[in-house]
Amino acid sequence: MTNRKSLLGRSRPADRLSKSDREALERAAAEPAPESPPAKASPAKNTAPPANAGKEASVRKSQLKFHWTAECPACGFKVAGGGNPQPGQRLARCGRCKLNIYLKGK
């Protein structure tokens, strides 16, 4: 098996340009390009707004979703849930210490 890393980052000798080829490329890059005629502005064919711009929509309050996170008071593990919990409601069960977590309140 050959050592592939020996040529890593370097070109192979067969791929290298000769000195005359490099000089020809440098001269071609140094010569200014011929001026082209100014481009004409194309006429606007489609004046309609794009399909994904400026649309509006409404949602009901019952469609909103709330996401919350909290730390377990026993072990500090992060628990998460959704909705709008009420005081005294069970929020989650810790996945690490298996503690049921309730929302403090009245």
From TrEMBL:
| Compositional bias per record (Low complexity), positions renumbered to this chain | 30-53
Instruction: List compositional bias (Basic and acidic residues) regions by residue number.
Output: 12-29
Spans annotated as Disordered: 1-62
**What is the designated name of this protein?**
Uncharacterized protein
